[in-house]
Amino acid sequence: MTSESSRRTLLRGLALAPFLWLARSRRAESRDYSSPAEVLGTIDSLEADVAGRLDAIAATLASARPLATSFLADHARHRRVRATVRERLRLAGPPIAGPPKPAPSKGERALDGLRAAQEALVYAHAEGLPAIGDPAAVDGLARNMIDLARHLAVIDLWLEAEAARD
Amino acid sequence: MTDRTLPGTRREVVLGLARAAGVAPVVLGLLEGTAQALPRGESSDIAILSAALALENQAIAIYDHGSRHNLIPAGLRHYAVEFRGDHLGHRDTQIAVLEERGGKAPEAFAESAVRSVAAGDDWIRQALTIEIAAQDAYGALISQIRTKDYLLSAAFILVDEIRHMTVWRRVLGLKIY
């Protein structure tokens, strides 16, 4: 277990000063991962969720296809990085992909759902890095996170543009 | 694994800003690609924290200067306010971590030392440059961080820097995906 130390430090930080930056999101209640295998397994699952949502949006919205193609190409590269990390840390490979995720509920706007799923994927990387324990593996996953944080920012800009049109 | 060194021109920009900000030679070596790793110890975290704080101070000064001299287009000021707030949060968080480790925070970057630029796109390019430098620096240094609490904070800081960079790139019409 990585212990509660990271969470405690963040919370202690919140008590020390008006850290609105940390308090702005769920960052103050970050998840503590127990092992690199748990981090990588979580990332596999969240990435599949994002990919399913991107596919669904691209299937109904032609203008979203270049974006989906670009993001999914990054995912493919990220999976290769994770395979290298697993090899380096002598971990078993990812489980064989299960059945496709159920479609998002009807009340949920597709883009909002994609944003939430993308944020969860970015946060899993950020919260998972302290559990990795190997500088080269941290480097690889951090570089994946940089791409994914950019994807999240692009989705935010898309949402802002949609809101401005409404 | 990915190459930790940065492309030539971009590396020069990052190094120029890092040198101007007084970043320690041991960290400059890593950013230059002449060092592969920092020694694994508390002193490395302190060197990284000092480098990061120097860049955060420079970013805050650029946003302050832009705001005070009306260099930021009206429709984009909300981004500048948000990003300045992020940089203040990054600074305060890292000062707390640094002081907890017995380090001393570097001096704030004097706003008077910010290079004067024209309003509009020129200022946005200046803001983008510091955001790229911050992203490159955190990206290059994050794997060298020894302590888990600081690694977690640095990861979230890096996520913010990428958002800032992506927004300014979009505003300037540059590729974002």
3D structure, described in words:
The complex is a heterodimer of chains A (166) and B (177). In chain A, α3 (36-60) runs antiparallel to α4 (65-88). The longest helix of chain A has 31 residues, at 135-165. Chain A is built from 6 helices and no strands. Chain A has helices spanning 5-16, 20-23, 36-60, 65-88, 110-132, 135-165. Residues 14-18 of chain A have low confidence and may be disordered. Chain B is built from 6 helices and no strands. Chain B has one domain: Ferritin, CATH 1.20.1260.10. Chain B is globular. Chain B has 177 residues and is mainly alpha-helical. The chains are: A mainly alpha (166), B mainly alpha (177). Chain A binds chain B through residues 2, 5-6, 9-10, 13, 16-17, 19-22, 27, 30, 66-67, 70-71, 81, 84, 122, 125-127, 129-130, 135-136, 138-140, 142-143, 145-146, 149-154, 156-157, and chain B through 1-2, 4, 37, 85-86, 88-90, 92-93, 96-97, 135, 139, 142-144, 148-149, 151-153, 155-156, 158-160, 162-163, 165-167, 170, 176-177.
